[in-house]
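ok new one. same drill as before - structure tokens go in, u give me an amino acid for every spot. 756 of them this time. try not to just spam alanines like last time pls lmao
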């Protein structure tokens, strides 16, 4: 069967295949269950644990969870027994320590509950099967540490590593094969020497140091608060594409690299701006609805679903949770969506730029800080100008950006996100903060020691600076609440009312490292602010309002360069940012170098203690190695597609035209049109052949000249191979526009983007 026939059959299958339907859970009386009745039914929650354990055992576990004591063997064994019974009652046959190695994905190794007990009787040896799960099996497991990215920290002969149960994240069961299920134990991953080999350990450490610093600041400002714990909250808006799985199977580039390495835009894509928030296609709606049901059972609070800007692009977003749990839930959501999409003959694409020329995908991380009393420390309240606590925490975030913006750029840098940053759907490599007109006016007024100006918007005269009323001037419509700030969709780091939205994070990456870096930078800034407050108040026990204002004014002036309210995509901003001294980091390899520069390395190691020097250097090498490997894989994939599919198709089409022209000429019929097309096609084929050879040479040189300097290798991939990939693509796309459709071997953008 020809490639063309495969394409057409895939189209027919997509249009005529049987639609998958599932039955929504119902109560005994036949009525549908409320979502709140399904929520968390497959999670071994604290409430479930409390019912399953004796009170002294449960109390002992709570003390350990709060960091007050170690988990003893009796408690661990009791929890292991209780969770095994609970899981097996839900069909579990295996358990796994579920962790986050530095691959961008999660990892798991399944072990059975089944054990064999051998006893010896006068009649001989007797084997008895039992189901067993001990406290030691719950607490830790031992995967091969040498087979995961370690940046040189582990070698093949240093293979031992440990996964350790993260007691702050609840265990859960997921569906397995043949009606069974698997118990998942959220875990961290460390080496034999105790070095972090994963994404989660750093996040948990950063949460703790931020809690200590933020609690100190709150209690210094408000002695009566007695805050013991501060935590970060996170909401991750997950964007993704869904394409027909049969079409996907015919695209080697999508299967191997996650993005299309060739392909022309269809005449209609996103330019009419009609897909965003449009009607969700029925197959997609069934898929997302099933995803939401699975997530409900897993205690993942999916709140929002909608079409995104590009055709075939969508988004789901959860309710905010504590950051480490939110990260677990985001990664779990991605995994569940992958499985559910498969059931609907769809394929989910998490690559930041799977299709050239249309909107890319991000993972907007909405980040805030809250106390153990439930107070959001980034809530400006009605009068932010007198809310000194809010102002100091706001300025701590701005100071973090000003001092360590390059680290945030590192945290979102990858070969895939590079296609999206600065491409009119994500900010460029300049990290700045958007606050909105009102907050900017508050900070400016405090800095200049003057009254705050009244805002007057002609078309909405009832807007108040301290208040939030908006009159739409239509009598049938009610007055509505108005946020303190507008939204700036071009800002990489925007304040959106009571949180910051880190918009530059890539859709397929784990949020762990970006949030870890942000937590660390803010911790360093809070520590600096506390030091300034203590110096300002002198021998007093607590700072006065004048002391607080003095420190606030100082940090308003210091952080002013990082505040920007305009268009982050504009050329004017690039020039203005340079005047302000803000770094414009244009490539991932350049960004990686900042991770090991003294200022940032010191903050992440000795100042906050989040990473050891070895752990940080390991991550530096992993980032560089991954970047170069990604580029090489893309290049080799593109070479194969062009050499084995596109060029042969173009030559076959050219042969068909030549034979047609010769046949016409033989019977005395004018063959000018065929000859014209042949003449137009010849230079396109020649160009593609030439660029194909250049790409091959560039890849060979990069591979042959690999050095121990991982950053130099990554930089060489960026400088030589990535441009060669782009040149081959340009030549291949020109051919796609000229070769007859029946000869083209790959599903086109029209079929990929518009067949769901």
């Amino acid at each position: 069967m020809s490639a063309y026939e495969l394409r057409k059959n895939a189209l027919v299958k997509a249009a005529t295949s049987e639609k998958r339907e599932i039955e929504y859970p119902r109560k005994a009386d036949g009525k549908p269950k409320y979502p709140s009745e399904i929520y968390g039914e497959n999670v071994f929650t604290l409430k479930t644990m409390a019912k399953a354990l004796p009170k002294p055992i449960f109390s002992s576990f709570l003390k350990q969870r709060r960091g007050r004591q170690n988990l003893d063997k009796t408690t661990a064994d009791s929890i292991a027994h209780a969770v095994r019974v609970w899981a097996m009652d839900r069909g579990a046959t295996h358990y796994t320590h579920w962790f986050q190695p530095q691959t961008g994905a999660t990892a798991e190794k399944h072990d059975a509950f089944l054990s064999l007990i051998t006893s010896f009787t006068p009649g001989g040896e007797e084997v008895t099967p039992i189901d067993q799960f001990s406290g030691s099996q719950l607490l830790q497991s031992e995967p091969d540490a040498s087979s995961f990215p370690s940046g040189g920290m582990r070698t093949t002969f240093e293979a031992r590593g440990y996964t350790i149960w993260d007691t702050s994240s609840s265990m859960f069961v997921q569906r397995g094969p043949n009606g069974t299920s698997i118990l998942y134990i959220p875990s961290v991953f460390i080496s034999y020497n105790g070095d972090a080999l994963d994404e989660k350990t750093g996040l948990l450490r950063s949460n703790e140091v931020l809690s200590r610093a933020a609690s100190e600041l709150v209690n210094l400002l408000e002695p009566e608060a007695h805050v013991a714990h501060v935590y970060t909250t996170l909401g991750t808006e997950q964007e993704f594409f869904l394409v027909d799985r049969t079409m996907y199977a015919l695209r080697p580039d999508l299967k191997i690299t996650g993005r299309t390495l060739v392909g022309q835009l269809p005449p209609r894509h996103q330019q009419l701006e009609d897909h965003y928030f449009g009607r969700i296609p029925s197959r997609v709606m069934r898929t997302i609805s099933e995803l939401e049901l699975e997530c409900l059972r897993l205690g993942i609070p999916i709140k929002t679903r909608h079409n995104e800007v590009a055709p075939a692009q969508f988004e789901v977003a959860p309710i905010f949770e504590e950051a480490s749990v939110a990260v677990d839930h985001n990664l779990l959501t991605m995994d569940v969506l992958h499985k559910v999409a498969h059931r609907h003959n769809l394929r989910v694409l998490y690559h930041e730029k799977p299709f050239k020329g249309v909107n890319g995908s991000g993972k907007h991380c909405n980040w805030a800080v809250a106390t153990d009393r439930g107070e959001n420390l980034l809530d400006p309240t009605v009068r932010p100008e007198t809310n000194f606590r809010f102002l100091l925490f706001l300025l701590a975030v701005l100071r973090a950006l000003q001092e360590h913006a390059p680290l945030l750029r590192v945290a979102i840098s990858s070969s895939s996100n590079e296609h999206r940053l600065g491409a009119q759907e994500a900010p460029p490599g300049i990290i700045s903060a958007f606050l909105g007109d009102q907050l900017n006016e508050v900070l400016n007024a405090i800095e200049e020691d003057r009254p705050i100006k009244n805002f007057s918007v002609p078309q909405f005269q009832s807007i108040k600076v301290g208040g939030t009323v908006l009159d739409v001037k239509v009598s049938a419509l009610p007055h509505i609440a108005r946020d303190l700030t507008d939204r700036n969709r071009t800002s990489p780091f925007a304040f959106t009312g009571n949180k910051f939205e880190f918009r530059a994070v890539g859709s397929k990456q784990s949020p762990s490292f970006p949030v870890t870096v942000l937590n660390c930078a803010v911790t360093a800034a809070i520590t600096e602010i506390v030091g300034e407050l203590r110096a300002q108040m002198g021998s007093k026990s607590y700072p006065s309002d004048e002391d607080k204002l003095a420190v606030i004014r100082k940090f308003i002036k210091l952080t002013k360069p990082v505040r920007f309210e305009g268009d982050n995509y504009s050329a004017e901003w690039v020039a203005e940012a340079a005047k302000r001294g803000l770094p414009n980091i244009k490539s991932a390899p350049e960004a990686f170098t900042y991770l090991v520069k003294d200022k940032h390395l010191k903050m992440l190691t000795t100042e906050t203690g989040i990473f050891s020097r070895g752990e940080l250097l390991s991550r530096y090498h992993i980032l560089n190695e991954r970047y170069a490997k990604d580029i090489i894989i893309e290049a080799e994939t593109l070479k194969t597609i062009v050499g084995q599919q596109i060029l042969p198709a173009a030559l076959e089409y050219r042969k068909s035209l030549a034979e047609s022209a010769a046949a016409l000429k033989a019977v005395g019929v004018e063959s000018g049109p065929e000859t014209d097309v042949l003449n137009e096609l010849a230079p396109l084929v020649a160009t593609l052949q030439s660029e194909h050879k250049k790409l091959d040479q560039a890849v060979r040189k990069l591979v042959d000249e690999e050095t121990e300097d991982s950053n130099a290798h990554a930089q060489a991939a960026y400088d030589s191979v990535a441009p060669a990939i782009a040149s081959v693509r340009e030549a291949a796309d020109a051919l796609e526009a000229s070769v007859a459709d029946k000869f083209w071997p790959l599903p086109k953008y029209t079929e990929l983007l518009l067949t769901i």
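The CA atoms of residues 631 and 722 lie 7 Å apart. and btw Confidence is low (pLDDT under 50) at residues 456-467.
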